[in-house]
UniProtKB/TrEMBL annotation:
Residues 28-306 form the Prenyltransferase alpha-alpha toroid domain. Heterotrimer composed of the alpha subunit RGTA, the beta subunit RGTB and REP; within this trimer, RGTA and RGTB form the catalytic component, while REP mediates peptide substrate binding. This is Geranylgeranyl transferase type-2 subunit beta. Its cofactor is Zn(2+). The lineage of its organism: Eukaryota, Viridiplantae, Streptophyta, Embryophyta, Tracheophyta. CDD domains: GGTase-II. Its EC number is 2.5.1.60. GO terms for cellular component: Rab-protein geranylgeranyltransferase complex.
């Protein structure tokens, strides 16, 4: 199975949900959210910072992405960030969540996305990094997260996504990777973490994303999956990850972007999703929480802003995503917007 550059580009661009004009941006507390993100970086010794130390690479990606979407990226020291990111690279080529931490494919994608955002991919030894990712592919086409061998479709998506950004997807057996993802499809149209695993909105984003990048969406039953995803919307307008669970801002991205990729986003009430996200804002101190009246955090602020900053238009099909690309800065780093990663929040809290 072979993909030329334009095919890869079109597959990746199908993630671009539409122009950055935003259907709720006018009601976002832009300045307060930006100040909240900047304040988190300055708090080195509080409880939240300590318990998140091993996730700092993910946190850097969430925070920097949020600042860029809010038009505030110029407030950070980019050279200092690049230096820190590179100090987290292991001799194997992979990246850890912080300096001195073991490499993992999750943190590796965050590192690549941060460097892409800052237009600094040229500091990488691309082949060394690509070889590290390729080394995590197993004989059945699945991917392990690190040397310890845990297998999950999140890692399949991350490997395919990262190698696509690096233009090195030929380093892996794409056909086997696709076949493994397809083997995780369930009778309800969704996808699980492994074959037979329960369908989950986060896993669905990963599997559909991997299939989209590799030009393999024909394996998806779009109507069946679209119906399952639309059933994730609850009375408040928010979306949950699986049946009988509470809504959470982060699923707004995973559900809506999955619906975009299968061209079924018009089946859901997008305005109610937007209102749910706005209700999760801390209008006094900035930040967005998982649901109204809960404590804010960087992770949910990132996803809330990401969804709010994108117009989930019915007219934005995968092919038309190319035209949307022309409406923003065409340099490669813009691709970071369309490859939102799955991270340790999803790893540990499967709501």
């Amino acid at each position: 199975m072979h993909f030329n550059g334009e095919q890869q580009r079109q597959s990746i661009i199908c993630f671009l949900v539409c122009s950055l004009k935003g259907f709720t941006m006018g009601e976002l507390e832009v300045e307060k959210h930006a100040q909240y993100i900047l304040s988190v970086e300055k708090r080195k010794d509080d409880f939240e910072s300590v318990v998140m130390e091993h996730l700092r690479m993910n946190g850097a990606y969430w925070g920097l992405t949020t600042l860029d979407l809010l038009g505030k990226l110029e407030t950070v020291d980019k050279d200092e960030i690049v230096s820190w990111v590179m100090s987290c690279q292991h001799e194997s080529g992979g990246f850890g969540g912080n300096v001195g931490h073991d490499p993992h494919i999750l943190y590796t994608l965050s590192a690549v996305q941060v460097l892409a955002l800052l237009d600094k991919l040229d500091v990488l030894d691309i082949d060394k990094l690509a070889n590290y990712i390729a080394s995590l592919q197993n004989e059945d086409g699945s991917f392990s997260g690190d040397m310890w061998g845990e297998v999950d479709t999140r890692f399949s998506y991350i490997a395919i996504c990262c190698l696509s950004l690096l233009h090195r997807i030929d380093k892996i057996n794409v056909e086997k990777a696709v076949n493994y993802v397809v083997s995780c499809k369930n009778l309800d149209g969704g996808f699980g973490s492994i074959p037979g695993g329960e369908s989950h909105a986060g896993q669905i984003f990963c599997c559909v994303g991997a299939l989209a990048i590799t030009g393999s969406l024909h394996h998806v039953d779009k109507d069946l999956l679209g119906w399952w995803l639309c059933e994730r919307q609850v009375k408040s307008g928010g979306l949950n990850g699986r049946p009988e669970k509470l809504p959470d801002v982060c699923y707004s991205w995973w559900v809506l972007s999955s619906l975009i990729m299968i061209d079924r986003v018009h089946w859901i009430n997008k305005e109610k999703v937007a209102r749910f996200i706005l209700d999760c804002q801390d209008k006094e101190n900035g930040g967005i929480s998982d649901r109204p009246d809960d404590a804010v955090d960087v992770f949910h602020t990132y996803f809330g802003v990401a969804v709010s900053d994108n117009d989930f238009s019915d007219s934005c099909t995968p092919l038309e995503g190319i035209h949307c690309m022309a409406m923003v800065d065409p340099k490669p780093p813009v691709l970071f917007y369309i490859v939102m990663e799955l991270d340790f929040h999803f790893l540990n809290i499967r709501d």
